[in-house]
Amino acid sequence: MRKAVSINKVFWILLACSFAFALATAAVAVWVTAKPFLTETHKRAVISQAKQEASRIYSVLDPSASLTVYLASEPSLLSFVIGDVTRDDAFVDRLQDTVVPENVSEFFVFDFEGSALSFHMVSTRSHSLETTSAAGELAREVLETQTLAIRTVDTYRAVNTSFQEILIAAPIMNQGFVEGVLTSVLEVDLRQDEVGPGQIAMQARIVDADDPWSADLERQDAIVVPVGKTGMQLVLNSQGTLFATIGQELVLKAIVAISAALLLPFSIFGWLGRQTILRPHAEVERSRNKLREQQKELSELASIARKAEEAILITDLETRIIWHNPAFERRSGYKAKDIIGKKPTSLLQGPETDPATRAEIRKALDARQPITVELLNYRFGSEEYWIRLSISTLFDDEGQAYGFMAISSDITDQKKYEKNLISTTSAMEWQALHDELTGLPNRRCFNVTFEKLCAEKSDEASIAIIRIDLDHFKNVNDTMGHEAGDEVLCRVAQILREEITEHDIPVRIGGDEFIVLLGKDGSLVNAQRLANNMLSRISEPMDYEGKSLSVGASFGVATEECALVEKEDLVRAADAALYIAKERGRSQVITYGPAEHDKVVEVRDVAEQIRLGLQRGEFVPFYQPQIDAQTLEVVGVEVLARWAQPNGNVVSPAGFLEVAEQLSMLTTLDAMVMNKALEDVAELERAQIALPKVSFNVTASRLSDPELLVAIDAREFKDTKVSFEILESVFLDDQPEYLDFTLDLLREKGLSIEIDDFGSGHASMISLMRVRPDVLKIDQRLVYGAPQTEVCQNMVRSIIGIAESLQISVTAEGVETYMHAEMMQSMGCQTLQGFHFAEPMSFEHLKNFLSPTEEPQRKLG
Question: pLDDT value at position 556?
């Protein structure tokens, strides 16, 4: 009894000591943790207030940014920036009609070089020189990035201020090009209401997110939060004593609360302790009952396992089989006597079983972790089958592992389906990314690979593009057949494969066009060496069915190393170099360098001006009179295209015709000039000014344009005859059949046909008889050289003789002097045309030239 009392006393003393120790520990913990907790709470309050302030500032910046973008798209501002107008009064009027936020003080306008054109005040506040400088720097940045940018003015960085200036710059775009920048200046109010006792005092500043100085602020424990999506940050420095008093009260109240809270669990603990000491036998009985229930559950589980379709194994920790269900025997093909005591690895696994998967299983077993894998097994007799295997560790009541349980299901059919699906998918993907004839990657594959390389930022390797176009390939198809052409393409593809390295990609992009992408060594030296090697091999004669096939190739090379264009524009640069190679005579390698870049930029600028000229209707007809060689009367005019630019310059076709043809704008340009000329001729007829004939230069493609006949049918004059001048080069012996039909249709409508530049050597007598033109116009080079060389004289006489035999009229072009006129007249030319009589003239000058009251003097001398 005394012993029981002693145990009871010790128990309660220990319980009281534990309570006192817990209370003291809690007090120390509260004292240690209170200060950082309050500091963190204070910081969260500051961050919350900073985010509210950032949201307010963003609500000021966002409408100002939207307004700046909107005003940058104003047509009046674009016209001022590109120089169509010299003053921006229209833009100023637009500003006055626009509701400008009160925080916006002024607008700056910069041109495409970043130079300031003008600025406009929209408030009484004025800007500083530092603001002007910052606006210029931001404008130049936007010209490079072509995107909206928002920046602070650096003058407020190191001082406290109630207001801070922000710059918003938006690009002024014109058909994909940046023509200038519009920058708005606004002031953001950073003032804080008066701070009372215990409140948080803020010192706010706005900085750019990419400014290194913002990182210094964060290291100085300043609060930095983003201002919306502007790329700027709000920086707050706060001071406050709000939580000093709260901290003291919190510590005292926490100790009282902990004391009350500990009483209940310690009371319960004392009661549970006594129950545990007094009733030990009850716990033992409960354990025995639990063991019987577990044995019953195991018996039921064993019964279910025997009937299951999945194969189930029980092994010891050495993975030797100690139990299995019937499904395992059916699946493996082994009998019970062959299974017990054996390891599954020796029974089921074979040469094709994945070693990595086996290692993964062993690792999981050693770590006593569950695992599920797919594994190739072998039945008795070496028949393969696939299983999905799940293994888990078995533990006893004390938590000690004593074995493993493995459950497997047959997935052989599923694996076969997956294999067939993968095989089919791989074949389809290969076909989608490769050229069927040559087996090379196709354009789609090239685009995917090139975009991936462009997205990668690598300082170690540069890329290069080699653009290849076969020369005279059409001759192979026409003379030897398409099978021979296919053979040439395959051999060229093989040459490309043999010349490149494993890091390069040869591509057939269509027809006889190829690209080689150098993905690792894209140096200029390597690209040129490779291109010259391929040119040399492709130019060698190829044997096909006992016959020799010869083709050449033109190469355009563009490398990242040249640093003339962005990586994404290398393909276009290589195309430009290839075009120059073909222009210079084919079968050569041209590298995209500064000269080629300047030419591309020049052509691009001319192309842009041509597009604008077509939109503004700047292409007009000029007229060169044609004179009767005997009477010296005007018998017609030839319509010539001229570009009347806004600055007063009149550009001849040499300044725009080639670029317009490259851009496929020639048909549009011809149609514009023809329509204006038809209107001019109609005006002459209404003014009763006689014009016997008007001649238009048309291309072969223009002849097939249905709009051509529509325009002719819609003409509003009757007395003037319409004639079409077609270059001799169009009339080759292999001219398309539609040309005959088109010419017959034109004759039915009363139009005459003239062959221009006859004598240049393109048309044969057969094609001339087939076309049956009304007029032959002798090439001006023959006319110009006739007074000096007997060869030109004989050529002219021959052409006139051919025309007389075919009953065709002859016109001499390029009659520049009296000697030219007299000689062409004496040789038998019916019509003369050239500067000796009149230069190409505008419509107003033509009216004066044709007016009966003027009667301009026309003479041979």
Answer: 93
State yes or no: pLDDT of 158 exceeds 50: no
Residue 210 near residue 231, CB atoms below 8 Å: yes
- What strands, in cross-sheet order, belong to the sheet with 201-208? 201-208, 232-239, 223-226
B/e letters for 138-168, b = 16+ CB within 10 Å, e = fewer, are: bbeebbeeeebbbbbbbbbeeeeeeebbbbb
Q: Which strand (E) or helix (H) includes residue 172?
A: strand 163-174
Domain range list for the chain = 34-243, 279-308, 309-417, 434-592, 607-850
DSSP codes of every residue in 65-99: HHHHHHHHT-HHHHHHHHTSSS--HHHHHHHHTS-
Over residues 59-86, the mean pLDDT reads 84
Quick count: other Cβ atoms within 10 Å of Cβ 208? Answer: 18
With helix as H, strand as E and coil as C, how does 453-515 read?
Answer: HHHCCCCCCECEEEEEEEECHHHHHHHHCHHHHHHHHHHHHHHHHHHCCCCEEEEEEECCEEE
- What CATH class is the domain 434-592? alpha beta
Q: Is 433 helix (H, G, I), strand (E, B) or coil?
A: helix
Name the fold adopted by 607-850: TIM Barrel (3.20.20)
Averaged pLDDT, 718-744: 72
Cα separations in angstroms, 672 against 656, 727, 765: 15, 20, 34
Q: Which CATH architecture has domain 34-243?
A: 2-Layer Sandwich (3.30)
Q: Which tokens hold the place of 808?
A: 């065709």
What is the SS3 assignment for 310? coil
pLDDT band for 861, please (50, 70, 90 cuts): very low
pLDDT at res. 161: 61
- When comparing pLDDT for 693 and 254, which is higher? 693
Distance CA 26, CA 48 (A): 31
Paired tokens of 482 = 């398409």
**Cα end-to-end span (Å), the chain:** 157
Those residues whose C-beta lies under 8 Å from the C-beta of residue 18, and which sit 6 or more positions away, are 266
Task: For helices 818-827 and 790-805, give the axis angle rounded to 10 degrees.
Answer: 40
Structure tokens at 502: 């494993």
Same fold, 34-243 and 434-592: no
- Cβ contact 647:609 at 8 Å: no
pLDDT in tens, 342-368: 888 888 888 888 888 888 989 988 888
How confident is residue 239, by pLDDT bands cut at 50, 70 and 90? low
**Comparison of pLDDT for 39 and 581, the residue scoring more:** 581
Find the helix or strand (DSSP H, E) in which 53 lies: helix 2-72
Residues in Cβ contact with 416 at an 8 Å cutoff, skipping those fewer than 6 apart: none
Q: In this structure, are residues 571 and 450 in contact, taking their beta carbons and an 8 Å threshold?
A: yes
Would you put residue 511 in left (φ > 0), alpha (ψ -120 to 50) or beta?
A: left
Burial class of residue 534 in the structure, from the number of CB atoms within 10 Å of its CB (0-12 exposed, 13-18 middle, 19+ buried): buried
Provide the pairing of β-strand 831-832 with 809-812: parallel
Mean pLDDT is highest, among 261-270, 316-325, 458-467, for 316-325
The DSSP secondary structure of 732-759, one letter per residue, reads -TT--HHHHHHHHHHHHTT-EEEEEEET
What is the CATH number that goes with domain 309-417? Answer: 3.30.450.20
Note whether 191 and 182 are within 8 A (CB): no
CA 576, distance to chain mean position in Å, is 19
Q: 594-616 and 666-686 helices cross at what angle (nearest 10)?
A: 40
Instruction: Tokens for 603, please give them.
Output: 């052509």
Residues 601-616 have a mean pLDDT of 81
Listing DSSP states for 514-552 in one string gives EEEEESSB--HHHHHHHHHHHHHHHHS-EEETTEEE--E
In DSSP notation, 208-270 reads ETT-HHHHHHHHTT-EEEE-TTSSEEEEEEEE--HHHHHHHHHHHHHHHHHHHHHHHHHHHHH
Write b or e for each residue in 44-53: b if 16 or more Cβ atoms lie within 10 A of its Cβ, otherwise e. eebeebbeeb
* Model confidence at 524: pLDDT above 50: yes
